[in-house]
Sequence to fold (223 residues):
Amino acid sequence: MKCPQNGVCFRERRILRSPGSDRVNVVFVLRSKLMKRVRSQLRSMHEQYGPDFSFNITKCILDVTGSEQAIHAVRTKMRSMIGACTFLPAPLWAELLRTRREGTTGEDRVTIAHIQSVTGCHLHVERERQEVRVTGSDGCLFHSFQLLEELASECVTVDCGFVKVSEVMLEALAVQCDVTFRLQSGKVAIFGLRDSVREAFHEVRKAEYEVCDIAPVSSSGEM
Fold:
Protein backbone atom coordinates (compact mmCIF):
# COMPACT_ATOMS: atom_id res chain seq x y z
CA MET A 1 0.00 0.00 0.00
CA LYS A 2 1.93 3.01 -1.28
CA CYS A 3 1.47 6.51 0.05
CA PRO A 4 -0.77 8.14 -2.60
CA GLN A 5 0.62 10.95 -4.67
CA ASN A 6 -2.68 12.83 -4.96
CA GLY A 7 -3.03 13.55 -1.25
CA VAL A 8 -2.06 17.23 -1.54
CA CYS A 9 -5.17 19.41 -1.79
CA PHE A 10 -3.50 22.66 -2.83
CA ARG A 11 -1.23 24.00 -5.55
CA GLU A 12 1.01 27.05 -5.70
CA ARG A 13 -0.09 29.42 -8.41
CA ARG A 14 2.75 31.96 -8.31
CA ILE A 15 5.75 33.07 -6.28
CA LEU A 16 6.93 36.70 -6.21
CA ARG A 17 9.98 38.10 -4.47
CA SER A 18 10.03 41.80 -3.63
CA PRO A 19 13.21 43.53 -4.90
CA GLY A 20 15.72 43.99 -2.09
CA SER A 21 13.54 42.10 0.37
CA ASP A 22 13.75 38.65 1.90
CA ARG A 23 9.95 38.40 1.98
CA VAL A 24 8.25 36.10 -0.51
CA ASN A 25 4.64 36.11 -1.69
CA VAL A 26 3.06 32.71 -2.38
CA VAL A 27 -0.50 32.11 -3.52
CA PHE A 28 -1.94 28.72 -2.57
CA VAL A 29 -5.02 27.60 -4.50
CA LEU A 30 -6.92 25.27 -2.19
CA ARG A 31 -9.63 22.70 -2.62
CA SER A 32 -12.85 23.91 -1.04
CA LYS A 33 -12.97 21.12 1.55
CA LEU A 34 -9.62 22.31 2.92
CA MET A 35 -10.62 25.95 3.38
CA LYS A 36 -12.31 25.66 6.77
CA ARG A 37 -9.50 23.55 8.19
CA VAL A 38 -6.81 26.00 7.06
CA ARG A 39 -8.72 29.10 8.17
CA SER A 40 -9.03 27.72 11.70
CA GLN A 41 -5.23 27.46 11.88
CA LEU A 42 -4.26 30.86 10.41
CA ARG A 43 -3.82 32.63 13.74
CA SER A 44 -1.64 29.90 15.22
CA MET A 45 0.44 29.72 12.02
CA HIS A 46 0.92 33.50 12.09
CA GLU A 47 2.00 33.45 15.74
CA GLN A 48 4.28 30.46 15.23
CA TYR A 49 5.88 31.24 11.87
CA GLY A 50 5.33 34.99 11.40
CA PRO A 51 3.92 35.28 7.84
CA ASP A 52 1.00 37.50 6.85
CA PHE A 53 -2.14 35.95 5.36
CA SER A 54 -5.05 37.04 3.24
CA PHE A 55 -7.88 34.69 2.34
CA ASN A 56 -10.23 34.78 -0.65
CA ILE A 57 -13.11 32.48 0.23
CA THR A 58 -14.83 32.74 -3.16
CA LYS A 59 -11.76 31.73 -5.15
CA CYS A 60 -10.36 29.36 -2.48
CA ILE A 61 -7.09 31.29 -2.39
CA LEU A 62 -4.70 31.69 0.52
CA ASP A 63 -2.16 34.48 -0.01
CA VAL A 64 0.93 34.17 2.19
CA THR A 65 3.76 36.69 2.54
CA GLY A 66 6.84 36.03 4.65
CA SER A 67 10.39 34.74 4.66
CA GLU A 68 11.41 31.64 2.72
CA GLN A 69 11.61 29.78 6.03
CA ALA A 70 8.12 30.90 7.06
CA ILE A 71 6.64 29.95 3.67
CA HIS A 72 8.23 26.52 3.91
CA ALA A 73 6.84 26.08 7.44
CA VAL A 74 3.32 27.01 6.29
CA ARG A 75 3.57 24.66 3.31
CA THR A 76 4.68 21.80 5.60
CA LYS A 77 1.93 22.60 8.10
CA MET A 78 -0.76 22.51 5.41
CA ARG A 79 0.52 19.20 4.07
CA SER A 80 0.34 17.72 7.58
CA MET A 81 -3.22 19.03 7.96
CA ILE A 82 -4.31 17.65 4.60
CA GLY A 83 -2.63 14.28 4.79
CA ALA A 84 -3.43 11.65 2.20
CA CYS A 85 -6.41 9.49 1.36
CA THR A 86 -6.08 5.91 0.16
CA PHE A 87 -8.20 2.87 -0.64
CA LEU A 88 -8.46 0.08 1.95
CA PRO A 89 -9.00 -3.61 1.17
CA ALA A 90 -12.46 -4.68 2.35
CA PRO A 91 -11.25 -6.99 5.18
CA LEU A 92 -8.99 -4.31 6.69
CA TRP A 93 -11.62 -1.60 6.24
CA ALA A 94 -14.26 -3.71 8.00
CA GLU A 95 -11.91 -4.58 10.87
CA LEU A 96 -10.90 -0.95 11.45
CA LEU A 97 -14.56 0.06 11.57
CA ARG A 98 -15.38 -2.79 13.94
CA THR A 99 -12.61 -1.80 16.35
CA ARG A 100 -12.90 1.98 15.91
CA ARG A 101 -13.93 2.55 19.55
CA GLU A 102 -11.21 0.39 21.07
CA GLY A 103 -8.29 2.00 22.88
CA THR A 104 -4.63 1.08 22.98
CA THR A 105 -4.84 -1.21 26.01
CA GLY A 106 -5.97 -4.31 24.10
CA GLU A 107 -3.79 -6.79 22.23
CA ASP A 108 -5.45 -6.19 18.85
CA ARG A 109 -3.11 -4.33 16.49
CA VAL A 110 -5.74 -3.69 13.84
CA THR A 111 -7.30 -0.67 15.51
CA ILE A 112 -7.26 3.02 14.71
CA ALA A 113 -5.98 3.78 18.22
CA HIS A 114 -3.03 1.40 17.86
CA ILE A 115 -1.99 2.75 14.46
CA GLN A 116 -2.22 6.34 15.72
CA SER A 117 -0.17 5.59 18.84
CA VAL A 118 2.56 3.81 16.85
CA THR A 119 2.86 6.26 13.94
CA GLY A 120 1.87 9.60 15.47
CA CYS A 121 -0.63 10.21 12.65
CA HIS A 122 -4.36 10.80 12.84
CA LEU A 123 -6.64 8.38 10.95
CA HIS A 124 -10.19 8.92 9.76
CA VAL A 125 -11.82 5.83 8.26
CA GLU A 126 -14.74 6.59 5.96
CA ARG A 127 -17.88 4.65 6.85
CA GLU A 128 -19.52 4.86 3.41
CA ARG A 129 -16.54 3.85 1.28
CA GLN A 130 -13.32 1.86 1.63
CA GLU A 131 -11.01 4.79 2.30
CA VAL A 132 -8.89 6.18 5.10
CA ARG A 133 -7.48 9.70 5.42
CA VAL A 134 -4.20 9.94 7.27
CA THR A 135 -2.87 13.29 8.49
CA GLY A 136 0.54 14.05 9.93
CA SER A 137 4.11 14.73 8.90
CA ASP A 138 5.61 13.12 5.80
CA GLY A 139 7.49 10.64 7.98
CA CYS A 140 4.32 9.71 9.88
CA LEU A 141 2.41 9.23 6.63
CA PHE A 142 5.06 6.90 5.25
CA HIS A 143 5.08 4.87 8.49
CA SER A 144 1.27 4.71 8.55
CA PHE A 145 0.95 3.37 5.02
CA GLN A 146 3.64 0.78 5.69
CA LEU A 147 1.78 -0.38 8.80
CA LEU A 148 -1.58 -0.43 7.00
CA GLU A 149 -0.09 -2.64 4.30
CA GLU A 150 1.26 -4.99 6.96
CA LEU A 151 -2.06 -5.14 8.81
CA ALA A 152 -3.97 -5.74 5.57
CA SER A 153 -2.16 -9.06 5.20
CA GLU A 154 -3.57 -10.16 8.58
CA CYS A 155 -7.20 -9.61 7.56
CA VAL A 156 -9.22 -11.93 5.33
CA THR A 157 -12.72 -12.47 4.01
CA VAL A 158 -14.60 -15.73 3.47
CA ASP A 159 -17.84 -16.16 1.55
CA CYS A 160 -20.29 -18.52 3.23
CA GLY A 161 -22.91 -18.35 0.50
CA PHE A 162 -26.53 -18.84 1.51
CA VAL A 163 -26.84 -19.86 5.16
CA LYS A 164 -29.79 -21.01 7.24
CA VAL A 165 -28.90 -18.87 10.23
CA SER A 166 -30.93 -15.92 11.49
CA GLU A 167 -29.56 -12.37 11.55
CA VAL A 168 -29.90 -12.39 15.34
CA MET A 169 -27.63 -15.44 15.50
CA LEU A 170 -25.13 -13.81 13.13
CA GLU A 171 -25.01 -10.70 15.31
CA ALA A 172 -24.30 -12.87 18.36
CA LEU A 173 -21.57 -14.77 16.51
CA ALA A 174 -20.01 -11.50 15.34
CA VAL A 175 -19.58 -10.42 18.96
CA GLN A 176 -18.46 -13.87 20.07
CA CYS A 177 -15.83 -14.29 17.34
CA ASP A 178 -14.78 -10.62 16.90
CA VAL A 179 -15.67 -10.46 13.20
CA THR A 180 -17.94 -8.55 10.84
CA PHE A 181 -20.68 -10.30 8.88
CA ARG A 182 -22.00 -8.86 5.63
CA LEU A 183 -25.41 -10.06 4.51
CA GLN A 184 -26.11 -9.19 0.88
CA SER A 185 -28.75 -10.73 -1.39
CA GLY A 186 -29.15 -13.55 1.09
CA LYS A 187 -25.45 -14.44 1.02
CA VAL A 188 -23.13 -14.09 4.00
CA ALA A 189 -19.48 -13.03 4.01
CA ILE A 190 -17.16 -12.85 7.03
CA PHE A 191 -14.46 -10.18 7.49
CA GLY A 192 -11.78 -10.00 10.15
CA LEU A 193 -8.49 -11.39 11.40
CA ARG A 194 -7.57 -14.77 9.94
CA ASP A 195 -8.07 -16.88 13.10
CA SER A 196 -11.27 -15.05 14.04
CA VAL A 197 -12.75 -15.59 10.58
CA ARG A 198 -11.86 -19.27 10.71
CA GLU A 199 -13.61 -19.60 14.07
CA ALA A 200 -16.66 -17.68 12.86
CA PHE A 201 -16.93 -19.82 9.72
CA HIS A 202 -16.90 -22.97 11.87
CA GLU A 203 -19.54 -21.51 14.22
CA VAL A 204 -21.81 -20.58 11.30
CA ARG A 205 -21.64 -24.10 9.91
CA LYS A 206 -22.22 -25.51 13.38
CA ALA A 207 -25.29 -23.29 13.83
CA GLU A 208 -26.62 -24.42 10.44
CA TYR A 209 -26.29 -28.07 11.38
CA GLU A 210 -28.06 -27.42 14.67
CA VAL A 211 -30.92 -25.71 12.83
CA CYS A 212 -31.21 -28.72 10.54
CA ASP A 213 -30.61 -31.12 13.46
CA ILE A 214 -27.61 -32.66 11.69
CA ALA A 215 -24.33 -33.56 13.36
CA PRO A 216 -21.58 -31.11 12.27
CA VAL A 217 -18.77 -32.35 10.07
CA SER A 218 -15.25 -31.32 11.10
CA SER A 219 -13.52 -29.02 8.62
CA SER A 220 -9.82 -28.22 8.58
CA GLY A 221 -9.74 -26.11 5.42
CA GLU A 222 -7.22 -23.27 5.31
CA MET A 223 -8.36 -19.63 5.14
